[in-house]
Write a structure and sequence with these properties.
Length: 155
């Protein structure tokens, strides 16, 4: 494993401190169409069953028939317009016709950016017909303005 500037290898158990949090709620994504979504901060040890119950019972998402996990590097790359449109249309069509959840790293870079753009463009062009579920799973340290997501009593 790669070390940091002190020569010490990073170890999750030594370098991560878990504390109670109330970082959850609704979030507005700025820009065109201003869509709102939900967010929650969880531990890496949170059970998948608990997360699934949160998504289906509390957030009322329909259980998926399929999970589409889109992964790849965070390095930005250029897609020709035709290929980009094919990717966007194909991803949305598969998600709509199967009742899938699309899961990605939740960042605005690399392939994740293309996933986000496809979902955003679909949401802007079709009012409520064929709602798409997109879930971004990002590490807390990568979230811009993350302090604003923690309620004041806990800060």
């Amino acid at each position: 494993s790669e070390g940091n500037f002190t020569g010490e290898s990073w170890d999750r158990h030594r370098h991560v401190r878990e504390v109670p949090t109330d970082a959850f709620g609704d979030i507005s994504f700025g820009g065109l169409g201003q869509k709102t979504g939900k967010y929650v901060r969880v531990s890496t040890d949170t059970s998948p069953e608990l997360l699934y119950r949160l998504l289906t019972e509390q957030w009322k998402l329909s259980p998926p028939n399929l999970l589409i996990s889109v992964t790849g590097g965070a390095k930005n790359f250029y897609l020709k317009a035709r290929l980009k449109n094919m990717f966007h249309r194909g991803l949305i069509k598969v998600a709509q016709t199967t009742g899938a959840w699309i899961i990605s790293g939740g960042m605005h870079t690399g392939v994740m950016k293309h996933v986000g753009q496809a979902v955003r463009d679909h949401a802007l062009s079709s009012a409520m017909q064929g709602q798409i579920v997109a879930i971004g799973v990002a590490t807390w340290g990568m979230i811009h303005n993350r302090e604003a997501l923690v309620h004041s009593e806990v800060r």
